[in-house]
Amino acid sequence: VQLQASGGGLVQAGGSLRLSCAASGRTFSRYIMGWFRQAPGKEREFVAAISWNSRSTSSYSISVKDRFTISRDNTKNTVFLQMNSLKPEDTAVYYCATPRGMYGTIATTPAGYDSWGQGTLVTVSS
């Protein structure tokens, strides 16, 4: 599977950005999709993930819950991350990721994902 993330950029605190991740190479609708981020000098951390099923169950880290929304369009093989009320501490490289296995339950650690996009930089100025 190939993942291509886009949509990052520079935004002022309180602003919004929408990240996209286009997937190719397998049946998109059968796989969980996740977003992680990594700030300079810090470990990669979970941001959000969305299940494969028709209800699209989602999970969020505490730090972004109620500000970020993950969604997917299975007709376009794309997962989105809508980020609102951005804070300087949201500054990081954002990665989309997906596990090797179909279906399953959402994992919230990097070890639960096998394929990664190239990352897109989000910078939030104060």
How would you explain this protein's 3D organization?
This protein has 126 residues and is mostly beta strands. Helix content is 0%, strand content 47%. The chain has strands at 2-6, 9-12, 17-24, 33-38, 45-50, 58-60, 68-73, 78-83, 92-98, 115-116, 120-125. The strands form two sheets. Strands 2, 4, 5, 6, 9, 10 and 11 form a seven-stranded mixed sheet that branches. It has a four-stranded antiparallel sheet with strand order 1-3-8-7, with no helix packed on it. It is globular.
The portion of residues assigned to helices is under 10%
Tell me the radius of gyration: 13 Å
Task: State the end-to-end CA separation.
Answer: 37 Å
Largest sheet: 7 strands, mixed
Low-confidence stretches: none
Observed structural traits:
126 residues; 4-stranded antiparallel sheet
Short description:
With 126 residues, this protein is an all-beta fold. It has no helices and eleven strands. Helices cover 0% and strands 47% of the residues.
